[in-house]
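re: the backbone from monday

yeah here it is again, tokenized this time
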């Protein structure tokens, strides 16, 4: 007949464990007081995330991952990365046998993003080399757009981790990637944009970097809030690099408000990092120290990147205050 039963259930605590559920029916003629039991093996991320969409069924287990399972994960890969869920993606990819993982360029690039987030550049480059060979050999099986999107992700990772690239080559790859990507922003994820923009800034192309993030912020309105806040933070950082501390502070403060309102801990950390840098250059040392200490306390949220910079800032602040003992202790 018509009708149904919907019950939201939080499964994060039972990730990778079999779940047994019993439902007792009331108010249903002919079934009053009867129970229905079922058992299902589930796999969900440790945090409450949007990874397990309606497409990904709770049936992927280490012992039975199949080609169809790999396809399901591949279809959700960009969405997961746009939520900065690197650890959760790593869990899913580790469930795929290596023999199967090594057959898909998109999954290899997904794992390369995980290694990039872990600041593990050697394995990241090795995965990129594997992916490059597959992109070439699979070119006939991929649509032109899919091939180009994978190539752009490859370029974004390569310019970020391959220090053997000359500045001219890196910048050419960035410009080539952006020329394609700006027309397909809804099909990529924020880490691609951030990699291209931050590397551009490092190569002396600050205005180009600002244009990348502003165009993305305006054009990717359908991205999740976390991704948009991450792009907004980059815009604030580039304002800061341009000496526009008022504009930078406005970006960071707005992001911090959004982080507190919507429980976005990563955005909270990077926003405090930015505000600490501004307080530092304004010689507001007590305020700067408070921000830096908050960043260090949550170092794991950004793989230690922001915490390391905050630690150096604290060393500098204590040196300026002629507190050599604290500076030595921090070192």
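seq for it, each position gets an aa:
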């Amino acid at each position: 007949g018509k009708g149904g039963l919907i019950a939201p259930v939080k499964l994060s605590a039972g990730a990778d464990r079999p779940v047994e559920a019993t439902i007792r029916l009331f108010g249903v003629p002919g079934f009053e007081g009867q129970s229905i039991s079922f058992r299902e093996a589930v796999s969900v991320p440790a945090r409450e995330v949007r990874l397990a969409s309606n497409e990904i069924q709770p049936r992927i287990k280490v012992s039975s991952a199949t080609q169809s399972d790999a396809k399901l994960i591949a279809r959700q890969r960009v969405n997961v990365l746009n939520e900065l869920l690197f650890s959760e993606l790593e869990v899913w990819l580790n469930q795929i046998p290596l023999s199967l993982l090594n057959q898909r360029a998109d999954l290899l690039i997904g794992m390369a993003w995980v290694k990039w987030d872990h600041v593990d550049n050697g394995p990241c480059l090795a995965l990129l080399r594997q992916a490059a060979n597959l992109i070439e050999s699979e070119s006939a099986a991929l649509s032109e757009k899919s091939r180009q999107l994978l190539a752009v992700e490859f370029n974004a990772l390569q310019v970020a981790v391959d220090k053997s690239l000359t500045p001219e080559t890196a910048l050419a790859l960035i410009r080539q990637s952006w020329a394609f990507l700006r027309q397909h922003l809804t099909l990529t994820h924020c880490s691609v944009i951030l990699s291209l923009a931050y590397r551009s800034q490092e190569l002396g192309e600050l205005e180009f970097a600002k244009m990348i993030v502003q165009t993305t912020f305006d054009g990717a309105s359908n991205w999740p809030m976390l991704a948009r806040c991450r792009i907004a933070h980059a815009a604030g950082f580039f304002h800061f690099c341009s000496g526009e501390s008022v504009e930078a502070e406005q970006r960071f403060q707005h992001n911090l408000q959004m982080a507190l309102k919507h429980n976005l801990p990563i955005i909270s950390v990077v926003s405090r990092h930015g505000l600490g840098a501004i307080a530092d250059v304004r010689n507001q040392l007590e305020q700067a120290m408070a921000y830096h200490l908050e960043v260090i306390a949550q170092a794991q949220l950004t793989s230690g990147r922001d915490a390391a910079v905050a630690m150096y800032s604290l060393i500098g602040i204590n040196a300026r205050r002629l507190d050599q003992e604290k500076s030595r202790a921090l070192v």
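The chain has 15 helices and two strands. The first helix runs from residue 67 to 82.
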